[in-house]
Q: What sequence folds into this?
């Protein structure tokens, strides 16, 4: 994100894709020394938007949420653990997605989030 001010997602396969589906913009704020990062996702208008939230800018990719325009959580990623409690690496995630949400759209947002964090 330091080079790009925003990321655009297009529908289609290949270079000829012309219909923009979503745009992701970074917004950071500082609260009591903790720099929290979030990304605003707009889909055509500001009315239909989502928000990607991480714990803070220095945390790993491993814990973040995607909220809808009403503030409800539509997806959440956490570090995966085995049944015996062994925590896997930062890049092994469990992703829980609400059933009414387009899963391919959520995976696109997870990918953009990882790219923005320089962890993919």
A:
């Amino acid at each position: 994100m330091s080079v790009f001010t925003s990321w655009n997602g297009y529908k289609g396969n290949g270079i000829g894709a012309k219909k923009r589906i979503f745009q992701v913009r970074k917004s950071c704020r500082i609260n009591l020394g903790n720099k929290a990062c979030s990304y605003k996702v707009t889909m055509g208008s500001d009315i239909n938007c989502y928000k990607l939230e991480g714990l803070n800018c220095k945390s790993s990719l491993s814990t973040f949420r995607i909220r809808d325009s009403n503030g409800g959580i539509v997806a959440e990623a956490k570090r995966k653990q085995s049944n015996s409690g062994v925590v896997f690496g930062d890049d092994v995630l469990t992703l829980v997605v609400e059933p009414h949400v387009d899963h391919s759209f959520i995976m696109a947002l997870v990918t953009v989030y990882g790219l923005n964090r320089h962890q993919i």
Observations:
- The chain has one domain: 6-116.
- The chain is about 10% helix and 45% strand.
